[in-house]
Amino acid sequence: MDTPRRGPAANVRTAVVWEVLSAVLAGGPQVVVDAGGGTGGFAVPLAEAGHKVTVVDPSPDSLAALQRRAAERSLDVAALQGDLGDLPALVADGSADVVLCHSVLEVVDDPAAALAAAAAALRPGGRLSLLVANRDAAVLHRALAGRPDEAAHALTDPAGRWGAADPAARRWTPTAIRELVEAAGLTVEQVHGVRCVSDLVPSAVLDTEPGAAAALLALERRLSDASPFRDLATSLHVLARKS
């Protein structure tokens, strides 16, 4: 069973990721581990599509919300408390067809060790779906916000942060995240940009212009794998395979 298509409103931010996952998960139910899956934004639709889904998350409140959402839909989604570093104790090595790691690598203590744990959970030929914050986008966004000093700081900061008030713990460039994934023993198959331009479009435009949201979605799809737009997206989606 395929991953379900998302509605237009949700698609502006997640369409590219869902489309990549749809292709990966086509052909029948698969075993999916969603590391840091929270309240089930990805896990619940994947379970609805017939996949066997386990969510690993450090927040008991998020897991409780996930279980309520799953119960409302009569779905069986396993909820385990822990973070990426706990995967070896929670998920058997080589047991997952797909591991999702979306917007989690930014906040773990050791990104390299976390990726190694995710890779260990995959069966040979399994895929990692990784979503991370893009340093180059932060440079552009701070410059456009009239903060050139912060943009310059992000450009040279080892963690890609623009200053002490930056809410993000770290970001990566496209080259740096590819190298980190490959160091975990995985082969990068695809890199897409997520939110290439949507974060630069005033929400008032989308609310008042007929058809603007649909047009923006279509544009995002076209730009997601087109350089240089992909490399300036707010987030980078990496699909990698375990040999």
Short account of what is shown:
By secondary structure, the protein is α/β, with parallel strands linked by helices. It is 40% helix and 21% strand.
List keywords for this structure.
globular, single chain, Rossmann fold, alpha/beta, 40% helix, 243 residues, disordered N terminus, 10 helices
Query: Rg from C-alpha positions?
Result: 18 Å
Helix proportion range: 40-55%
Number of strands: 7
Under CATH, the homologous superfamily of the largest domain reads: Vaccinia Virus protein VP39
Count the helices. How many? 10
Number of domains: 2
Strand order of the largest sheet: 3-2-1-4-5-7-6
**What fold name stands as the CATH topology of the largest domain?**
Rossmann fold
In angstroms, what separates the terminal alpha carbons? 24 Å
Given helix and strand content, the structural type is: alpha/beta
In CATH, the architecture of the largest domain is: 3-Layer(aba) Sandwich
Broad CATH class of the largest domain = Alpha Beta
Strand % is: 15-25%
Describe the largest sheet: 7 strands, mixed
Could you name the ranges where pLDDT drops below 50 across 5 or more consecutive residues?
1-10
Summarize the structure in words.
By secondary structure, this protein is an alpha/beta fold. It has two domains: 8-134 and 172-242, Rossmann fold; 135-171, no CATH class. The protein contains ten helices and seven strands. The chain has helices at 8-24, 43-48, 60-72, 87-90, 111-121, 135-144, 148-156, 174-183, 203-208, 212-223, and strands at 31-35, 52-57, 78-81, 96-102, 122-133, 186-194, 235-242. Strands 3-2-1-4-5-7-6 form a seven-stranded mixed beta sheet, sandwiched between helices. Helix 5 (111-121) links the parallel strand 4 (96-102) and strand 5 (122-133). The relative contact order is 0.15. Residues 1-10 have low confidence and may be disordered.
